[in-house]
Amino acid sequence: MLVLADGTVIEGFGVGGTGEASGEVCFNTAMTGYEEILTDPSYAGQIVTFTFPHIGNVGVNDEDIETVNMASSSGVRGVVLAQAITEPSNWRAHRGFHEWLVTRGIVGISGIDTRALTALIREKGMTNAVIAHHPDGVFGVATLVAKAKALPSMTGLDLVPLVASYQRQGWEETEWSWPEGHGRQGEPRFHVLAIDYGVKRNILRLLAARGCKITVVPPSMKADELLALRPDGVFLANGPGDPAATGEYAVPVIKRLIDERVPTFGICLGHQIMALAIGGKTAKMNQGHHGANHPVKEMATGKVEIVSMNHGFAVDAASLPDNAVPTHVSLFDGSNCGLMLTDRPAFSVQHHPEASPGPRDSHYLFDRFVALMEAERQKKRAA
């Protein structure tokens, strides 16, 4: 059963782990990449409904996992599917999707009218819910409804500690290519600190492929500790939860780094926290943006990119200070999708330029970050 906080009860067939899972229900419109989605730490505390009906049909493999911190789960609480899971039919598959869900303890339900559920979320907003998978078919519906109603709102929740790594680590893996698979970094040109709020592997791969020696650092590190590592740049990672809650400890650090003119690049949660650090505000969205087919316009050029999105909070563009220029905008709802500072070497985007899954229209943003670090290095040499 899938039991929503408003008392709606939806019956289906249990898949994956048994027991109960609770969280905020969102829908994702991507047609591929379900493994990457379900291992994206930004989904911590959520139940993902896939609008595409055939999920699990190509199995799973170890190469497509996006979680960097293997000591924690991905954070996803549950999964909602339209069709039953079939046997995998892809040469890269290491195991079946159902077996993988069981191994990771992800509770799921299939046989659901996901179109109707998506329409409900679009109308009423993302709602809390409980998935119950009991093989004996015995459910205490009233208890499940009470549990769903008692769940806290995502607003005010700092979920970063659930998914972040609290040990410093290096990263050398680069992009996947046929037939070699993932590559290894050669000679690095820049030292980048990636603050781990729930960072995805493919972000680190794209940075490594562009000559960045990467050190993944915990979100709890202080500004003085980060500056002592003498970075050429700092990357603010994606992650789950309310940016204002994470910002309680992240904002002072980021503000100091920006003031010290450390080139800074943020994605998703990193974008939201950067906005908070310069005096902006964020707000909870009604249904959020989750998918790999979202149109975003770069305002300076008018270029429209199709991008991957995964966020339930957004930056209030009207709250940004005068030294912050909005750079990208969603063509779905006009929400802010990027900013750039005019007096500091810092910029950020709401969408996921690394894709995984999704199109590669925004890969140029990683080149922009490298160019920013090079320009700042030249300024220091000239001084």
Write the topology of this structure:
Elements lengths: L1 E3 L4 E2 L2 E4 L2 E10 L5 H5 L7 E5 L27 E3 L16 H8 L2 E4 L3 H11 L3 E6 L7 H10 L9 H4 L5 E3 L1 E5 L3 E4 L5 E6 L5 H9 L2 E6 L5 H6 L4 E4 L6 H17 L4 E4 L1 H9 L3 E18 L5 E13 L7 E7 L5 E6 L4 E4 L14 H19 L1
Parallel strand pairs: 4-5, 5-6, 6-7, 12-13, 12-14, 14-15, 15-20
Antiparallel strand pairs: 1-2, 1-8, 3-7, 4-8, 9-13, 10-11, 16-17, 16-18, 18-19, 19-20
Helix pairs in contact: 8-9
Mind explaining what this structure looks like?
With 383 residues, the protein is of the alpha/beta class. The protein has 2 domains: 2-150, Glucose Oxidase, domain 1, CATH 3.50.30; 160-382, 3-Layer(aba) Sandwich (Rossmann fold), CATH 3.40.50. 26% of the residues lie in helices and 31% in strands. It has helices at 34-38, 97-104, 114-124, 141-150, 160-163, 201-209, 223-228, 243-259, 269-277, 364-382, and strands at residues 2-4, 9-10, 13-16, 19-28, 46-50, 78-80, 107-110, 128-133, 169-171, 173-177, 181-184, 190-195, 212-217, 233-236, 264-267, 281-298, 304-316, 324-330, 336-341, 346-349. It has a 10-stranded mixed β-sheet with strand order 9-13-12-14-15-20-19-18-16-17, with helices on both faces. A hairpin with a 3-residue loop joins strand 10 and strand 11. Helix 8 crosses helix 9 (269-277). The radius of gyration is 21 Å and the shape is globular. The mean pLDDT is 96.
